[in-house]
Amino acid sequence: MSQEAFEIAEQFQTPVFVMMDLDLGMNNWMSQGFKYPEKPVDRGKMLTPEILQKLGEWGRYKDVDGDGIPYRTIPGDGMPSYFTRGSGHNAKGQYSERPDDYVDNMDRLARKFETARAWVPKPVIDHVAGAKIGFIGYGTSHWAIEESRDQLLEETDLKASYYRLRAYPFTADLAPFVDAHDRIYVIEQNRDAQLRQLMRLELTPERISKLRSVLHYNGLPIDARSITDDVLAQEGYEVARKTATRAVASSSGMTGGE
User: Fold this and answer.
1) Between the chain's N and C termini, which has fewer beta carbons within 10 Å?
2) What is the pLDDT of residues 48-60, one digit of tens each?
3) What pTM did the predictor assign?
4) What angle do CA 156, 162, 33 make, to 5 degrees?
Protein backbone atom coordinates (compact mmCIF):
# COMPACT_ATOMS: atom_id res chain seq x y z
CA MET A 1 0.00 0.00 0.00
CA SER A 2 3.01 2.31 0.23
CA GLN A 3 3.06 2.59 -3.56
CA GLU A 4 -0.63 3.38 -3.59
CA ALA A 5 -0.19 5.94 -0.82
CA PHE A 6 2.58 7.67 -2.79
CA GLU A 7 0.34 7.93 -5.85
CA ILE A 8 -2.55 9.33 -3.81
CA ALA A 9 -0.18 11.87 -2.27
CA GLU A 10 0.82 13.00 -5.75
CA GLN A 11 -2.75 13.14 -7.04
CA PHE A 12 -4.10 15.06 -4.05
CA GLN A 13 -0.98 17.08 -3.25
CA THR A 14 -1.15 16.14 0.40
CA PRO A 15 0.67 13.94 2.92
CA VAL A 16 -0.65 10.37 3.21
CA PHE A 17 0.02 8.28 6.30
CA VAL A 18 0.41 4.51 6.01
CA MET A 19 -0.67 3.07 9.35
CA MET A 20 1.26 0.19 10.90
CA ASP A 21 1.37 -1.23 14.41
CA LEU A 22 3.90 -2.87 16.69
CA ASP A 23 2.55 -6.37 16.08
CA LEU A 24 2.95 -6.02 12.32
CA GLY A 25 6.35 -4.37 12.57
CA MET A 26 8.01 -6.79 14.99
CA ASN A 27 6.74 -10.20 13.85
CA ASN A 28 7.03 -12.40 10.78
CA TRP A 29 3.86 -12.59 8.69
CA MET A 30 2.84 -14.55 5.63
CA SER A 31 2.11 -12.19 2.77
CA GLN A 32 1.32 -12.10 -0.90
CA GLY A 33 4.23 -11.82 -3.30
CA PHE A 34 5.37 -8.27 -4.01
CA LYS A 35 4.01 -6.90 -7.28
CA TYR A 36 6.12 -4.33 -9.07
CA PRO A 37 4.37 -1.39 -10.75
CA GLU A 38 3.19 -2.06 -14.28
CA LYS A 39 2.56 1.58 -15.17
CA PRO A 40 4.14 4.94 -14.35
CA VAL A 41 3.10 6.77 -11.18
CA ASP A 42 0.13 9.07 -11.73
CA ARG A 43 1.52 12.50 -10.81
CA GLY A 44 -1.93 14.03 -10.74
CA LYS A 45 -2.94 17.38 -12.21
CA MET A 46 0.26 18.66 -13.78
CA LEU A 47 0.07 21.85 -15.81
CA THR A 48 0.94 21.44 -19.50
CA PRO A 49 1.11 24.00 -22.35
CA GLU A 50 -2.19 22.65 -23.69
CA ILE A 51 -3.95 22.96 -20.32
CA LEU A 52 -2.46 26.43 -19.76
CA GLN A 53 -3.75 27.59 -23.13
CA LYS A 54 -7.18 26.21 -22.33
CA LEU A 55 -7.30 27.86 -18.90
CA GLY A 56 -5.94 31.18 -20.08
CA GLU A 57 -4.77 32.05 -16.57
CA TRP A 58 -3.15 29.79 -13.98
CA GLY A 59 -3.09 30.07 -10.21
CA ARG A 60 -1.28 27.56 -8.04
CA TYR A 61 -4.27 27.12 -5.72
CA LYS A 62 -7.04 27.91 -8.18
CA ASP A 63 -9.77 25.24 -8.26
CA VAL A 64 -10.91 25.20 -11.87
CA ASP A 65 -12.60 21.77 -11.88
CA GLY A 66 -14.55 21.97 -8.62
CA ASP A 67 -12.75 18.99 -7.09
CA GLY A 68 -10.52 21.05 -4.79
CA ILE A 69 -7.34 19.97 -6.60
CA PRO A 70 -5.44 22.73 -8.44
CA TYR A 71 -2.97 22.23 -11.26
CA ARG A 72 0.68 22.31 -10.23
CA THR A 73 4.08 22.66 -11.83
CA ILE A 74 7.49 21.28 -10.88
CA PRO A 75 10.91 22.91 -11.40
CA GLY A 76 12.30 22.42 -14.90
CA ASP A 77 9.07 21.47 -16.68
CA GLY A 78 8.93 24.79 -18.57
CA MET A 79 5.68 25.85 -16.91
CA PRO A 80 5.19 28.94 -14.70
CA SER A 81 6.97 28.78 -11.37
CA TYR A 82 5.53 29.80 -8.02
CA PHE A 83 6.63 30.55 -4.49
CA THR A 84 4.86 28.81 -1.60
CA ARG A 85 4.79 30.23 1.89
CA GLY A 86 3.37 28.75 5.08
CA SER A 87 1.07 31.67 5.89
CA GLY A 88 -2.19 32.72 4.24
CA HIS A 89 -2.36 33.01 0.47
CA ASN A 90 -4.84 33.55 -2.34
CA ALA A 91 -5.61 31.29 -5.30
CA LYS A 92 -2.51 32.56 -7.14
CA GLY A 93 -0.24 31.63 -4.24
CA GLN A 94 0.32 35.28 -3.31
CA TYR A 95 0.55 36.29 0.35
CA SER A 96 -2.79 37.44 1.67
CA GLU A 97 -4.45 38.25 4.98
CA ARG A 98 -7.85 38.83 3.40
CA PRO A 99 -10.58 36.85 5.22
CA ASP A 100 -12.28 35.90 1.96
CA ASP A 101 -9.04 34.43 0.59
CA TYR A 102 -8.61 32.37 3.75
CA VAL A 103 -12.21 31.11 3.61
CA ASP A 104 -11.87 30.24 -0.08
CA ASN A 105 -8.75 28.20 0.60
CA MET A 106 -10.32 26.34 3.55
CA ASP A 107 -13.41 25.55 1.45
CA ARG A 108 -11.21 24.26 -1.38
CA LEU A 109 -9.39 21.93 1.00
CA ALA A 110 -12.74 20.61 2.23
CA ARG A 111 -13.77 19.89 -1.38
CA LYS A 112 -10.49 18.06 -1.94
CA PHE A 113 -11.14 15.91 1.13
CA GLU A 114 -14.57 14.99 -0.26
CA THR A 115 -13.06 14.16 -3.65
CA ALA A 116 -10.57 11.83 -1.95
CA ARG A 117 -13.40 9.57 -0.75
CA ALA A 118 -13.75 8.15 -4.24
CA TRP A 119 -10.01 7.56 -4.68
CA VAL A 120 -8.70 6.07 -1.45
CA PRO A 121 -8.53 2.25 -1.18
CA LYS A 122 -12.02 0.84 -0.77
CA PRO A 123 -12.99 -1.41 2.12
CA VAL A 124 -13.26 -5.17 1.74
CA ILE A 125 -16.86 -6.00 2.67
CA ASP A 126 -18.28 -9.43 3.47
CA HIS A 127 -22.08 -9.21 3.80
CA VAL A 128 -23.53 -12.28 5.47
CA ALA A 129 -27.17 -13.01 4.68
CA GLY A 130 -29.32 -12.78 7.77
CA ALA A 131 -26.61 -11.20 9.93
CA LYS A 132 -27.98 -8.73 12.48
CA ILE A 133 -24.53 -7.58 13.61
CA GLY A 134 -21.53 -6.29 11.68
CA PHE A 135 -17.85 -5.91 12.52
CA ILE A 136 -15.72 -2.98 11.44
CA GLY A 137 -11.96 -3.29 11.86
CA TYR A 138 -8.65 -2.58 10.17
CA GLY A 139 -4.98 -3.53 10.13
CA THR A 140 -3.72 -6.55 12.04
CA SER A 141 -7.07 -6.93 13.79
CA HIS A 142 -8.12 -8.75 10.63
CA TRP A 143 -7.19 -12.33 11.51
CA ALA A 144 -8.57 -12.10 15.05
CA ILE A 145 -11.82 -10.75 13.62
CA GLU A 146 -12.08 -13.57 11.10
CA GLU A 147 -11.51 -16.20 13.80
CA SER A 148 -13.98 -14.48 16.13
CA ARG A 149 -16.67 -14.64 13.46
CA ASP A 150 -16.11 -18.39 13.24
CA GLN A 151 -16.27 -18.73 17.03
CA LEU A 152 -19.54 -16.81 17.24
CA LEU A 153 -21.12 -18.92 14.52
CA GLU A 154 -19.95 -22.18 16.10
CA GLU A 155 -20.86 -21.33 19.69
CA THR A 156 -24.08 -19.33 19.29
CA ASP A 157 -25.10 -19.38 15.61
CA LEU A 158 -24.55 -15.61 15.69
CA LYS A 159 -23.73 -14.40 12.17
CA ALA A 160 -21.52 -11.33 11.69
CA SER A 161 -20.80 -9.38 8.52
CA TYR A 162 -17.39 -7.76 8.18
CA TYR A 163 -16.28 -4.35 6.91
CA ARG A 164 -12.49 -4.30 6.62
CA LEU A 165 -11.58 -0.62 6.53
CA ARG A 166 -8.58 0.25 4.40
CA ALA A 167 -8.52 4.06 4.27
CA TYR A 168 -9.71 7.36 5.67
CA PRO A 169 -11.64 9.47 4.67
CA PHE A 170 -14.47 6.95 4.72
CA THR A 171 -15.93 5.96 1.38
CA ALA A 172 -19.62 5.93 0.50
CA ASP A 173 -19.80 2.24 1.48
CA LEU A 174 -19.87 2.94 5.24
CA ALA A 175 -23.43 4.20 5.71
CA PRO A 176 -25.11 1.36 3.75
CA PHE A 177 -23.16 -1.20 5.78
CA VAL A 178 -24.36 0.35 9.04
CA ASP A 179 -27.93 0.52 7.70
CA ALA A 180 -27.90 -3.19 6.86
CA HIS A 181 -27.34 -4.28 10.50
CA ASP A 182 -28.95 -3.77 13.90
CA ARG A 183 -25.65 -3.31 15.73
CA ILE A 184 -22.12 -2.52 14.58
CA TYR A 185 -19.08 -3.56 16.61
CA VAL A 186 -16.09 -1.30 15.95
CA ILE A 187 -12.98 -3.28 16.87
CA GLU A 188 -9.90 -1.25 17.76
CA GLN A 189 -6.52 -1.78 19.38
CA ASN A 190 -6.57 1.43 21.40
CA ARG A 191 -8.16 2.73 24.59
CA ASP A 192 -10.08 5.72 23.27
CA ALA A 193 -12.18 4.26 20.42
CA GLN A 194 -10.60 6.65 17.93
CA LEU A 195 -12.14 5.03 14.85
CA ARG A 196 -15.59 5.12 16.38
CA GLN A 197 -15.09 8.79 17.22
CA LEU A 198 -14.32 9.55 13.56
CA MET A 199 -17.44 7.68 12.49
CA ARG A 200 -19.56 9.66 14.94
CA LEU A 201 -18.46 12.86 13.19
CA GLU A 202 -19.93 11.73 9.88
CA LEU A 203 -22.85 9.40 10.55
CA THR A 204 -26.43 10.42 11.33
CA PRO A 205 -27.72 10.04 14.92
CA GLU A 206 -29.72 6.93 13.93
CA ARG A 207 -26.57 5.27 12.62
CA ILE A 208 -24.43 6.41 15.54
CA SER A 209 -26.83 4.69 17.94
CA LYS A 210 -25.90 1.34 16.35
CA LEU A 211 -22.18 1.63 17.08
CA ARG A 212 -20.60 -0.46 19.84
CA SER A 213 -16.93 -0.54 20.85
CA VAL A 214 -14.70 -3.58 21.25
CA LEU A 215 -11.39 -2.23 22.59
CA HIS A 216 -8.14 -4.15 23.09
CA TYR A 217 -5.20 -2.32 24.68
CA ASN A 218 -3.54 -4.64 27.19
CA GLY A 219 -0.19 -4.60 25.40
CA LEU A 220 -0.62 -8.00 23.74
CA PRO A 221 -1.65 -8.62 20.12
CA ILE A 222 -5.42 -8.75 19.75
CA ASP A 223 -6.90 -12.26 19.86
CA ALA A 224 -10.18 -13.75 18.69
CA ARG A 225 -11.32 -14.88 22.14
CA SER A 226 -11.16 -11.35 23.50
CA ILE A 227 -13.35 -10.09 20.66
CA THR A 228 -15.80 -12.97 20.95
CA ASP A 229 -16.25 -12.64 24.71
CA ASP A 230 -16.74 -8.87 24.50
CA VAL A 231 -19.33 -9.19 21.74
CA LEU A 232 -21.17 -12.01 23.54
CA ALA A 233 -21.32 -9.94 26.74
CA GLN A 234 -22.75 -6.96 24.86
CA GLU A 235 -25.22 -9.25 23.11
CA GLY A 236 -26.48 -10.48 26.48
CA TYR A 237 -24.79 -13.88 26.68
CA GLU A 238 -23.18 -15.26 29.83
CA VAL A 239 -19.40 -15.02 29.58
CA ALA A 240 -16.92 -16.56 32.02
CA ARG A 241 -15.10 -13.87 34.01
CA LYS A 242 -11.31 -13.82 33.87
CA THR A 243 -9.42 -13.31 37.16
CA ALA A 244 -6.58 -10.83 36.99
CA THR A 245 -3.56 -11.05 39.27
CA ARG A 246 -1.41 -8.23 40.58
CA ALA A 247 2.25 -8.56 41.51
CA VAL A 248 3.12 -7.44 45.03
CA ALA A 249 6.61 -6.61 46.29
CA SER A 250 5.90 -8.06 49.74
CA SER A 251 9.41 -7.69 51.13
CA SER A 252 9.28 -3.90 50.80
CA GLY A 253 5.58 -3.57 51.45
CA MET A 254 5.11 -1.83 48.06
CA THR A 255 2.58 -2.78 45.43
CA GLY A 256 3.07 -2.48 41.72
CA GLY A 257 1.82 0.83 40.38
CA GLU A 258 1.64 2.58 37.03
Assistant:
1) C
2) 999 999 999 999 9
3) 0.85
4) 120
